[in-house]
Amino acid sequence: MFRDGHIHTIYCPHGSKDSLNQYVERAIECGFTDITFTEHAPLPKNFIDPAPERDSAMDWIDLESYLKDVELAKKQYKSSIRIRTGLEVDFIEGFEQDTTNLLNEYGPHLDDSILSVHFLRHADRYYCVDFSEDEFRIIVERFGSVEEVYTSYYDTLLQSVEANLGAFKPDRIGHMTLVHKFQRMYPCHVSFDDRITAILQAVKKNRYSLDYNGAGTVKPLCLESYPPEHIARSARSLGIPLIYGSDAHAAAGIGQGFDKIDLILIEGSV
């Protein structure tokens, strides 16, 4: 039994035009028996997307259609594969109540969900940490150093784990080392082991799981999973479940990085 717990759809503005059926057919072809569609949840209505293309998340107007389409896919493929309805929800510092309101309204319709950090706050502005290497360079300049960006990211990630977002808060933390996406161009020379340990302890305390995300393995400036194997091993040693996620934004991305992770680490979580 293999599960891909992190898949996007045609509703993602920075994704592909592949249909849900194409994603599902690809998952079946790859041998997955259980998948979750986790489209980027709409951002708070009074939050301005800081990504240069302002394409970070699904539009509010599309949310109901997305949920209906996933339900249709569930029925269509119920004899072939388990499909879960999910969202990837952004933790945005300062917008916790907006996120809680979203979850309170739509959480009852979800089977699964992920809580992720893509946006960092600095000097009353927000930045999208994973948009591009050029944007990351600007972020490093604004924050002062790569190390300061990493500090902000991991501090925000810990806040996300500890935040009270209500009864429908996602119980899986997305790509916990996403800040490593451009590490081969912008290496970090300071250890963040203490912060990572604190995050893992908080994940354990709250009985959450981790998104063991394969997307980084195919990013040329990263070439490792989120989190990398040594952190994944530390998580498993604490009893934290790891759920593989391709983070596919096109049908062809289903299963990406699956051959580069240690399946023993996700045993019991699939």
TrEMBL record:
Residues annotated as domain PHP: 4-213
GO biological process: L-histidine biosynthetic process
Signal peptide: none
Pfam families documented for this protein: PHP (PF02811)
Entry EC no(s): 3.1.3.15
Name under which the protein is recorded: Histidinol-phosphatase
Molecular function terms from GO: histidinol-phosphatase activity
Involved pathway(s): Amino-acid biosynthesis; L-histidine biosynthesis; L-histidine from 5-phospho-alpha-D-ribose 1-diphosphate: step 8/9
Lineage: Bacteria, Bacillati, Bacillota, Bacilli, Bacillales
Catalytic activities: L-histidinol phosphate + H2O = L-histidinol + phosphate
Family, per entry: Belongs to the PHP hydrolase family. HisK subfamily.
Organism for this UniProt entry: Domibacillus aminovorans
One annotated Gene Ontology cellular component of this protein: cytoplasm
Keywords annotated in UniProt: Amino-acid biosynthesis, Histidine biosynthesis, Hydrolase
